Each structure stands twice: as C-alpha cells, then as structure tokens.
C-alpha cells in the first residue's frame, strides 16, 4: 500500500464534502473540529493555512495541501486576516 492510500484508509476517507471558494480579499474561514483529512487545492491566486502551529503555510496557484489537524485550521488570504465565519459540523456560523 502506498503512503497516500494508507493515509486515506487510516483517515476513513469514505464520504466527501466539497466546498469551492471564489473570494476577494480580505477573507478568512475557520474550520473547527474538522474531518480526519482535508484536501485543499489552490486553483488560482494564493491562500494561507494556519494550524495551531505558529508558522502559517502559503499555498500558491496549483498547490495542494493535505490537512490532518483534528483541532481545526484557518484558511485565509493573509495570515493576519480575522475569520469572517466558522465552519463546524458542515454548518456556517458567524463569529
């Protein structure tokens, strides 16, 4: 079994939720208590992913990130942008 197949199997990646974002800055969303595995793909522009880790990660157009952060994460146009809303359990909440 290759590494990606093993990761998907261990994350129990059987059901999928797809969310497409087309936003203009400033924008940020917080994902609280997310699934065991999230795949983020940047099709154009750029985005930043912030975990509990102090160093955010920049995604450029064409980049793909596999996120296995059980505590959640934030994706934004800039690391300093405050989230406009939170996604929890597939629902959107205002801060």
UniProtKB/TrEMBL annotation:
UniProt KW DNA-binding keyword: yes
Domain of life: Bacteria
One Gene Ontology MF term: DNA binding
Domain AraC-type transcription regulator ligand-binding: 2-89
Keyword line: DNA-binding
Pfam families: Cupin_6
InterPro entries in the record: AraC_lig
UniProt-recorded name of the protein: AraC family transcriptional regulator
Organism: Actinomadura darangshiensis
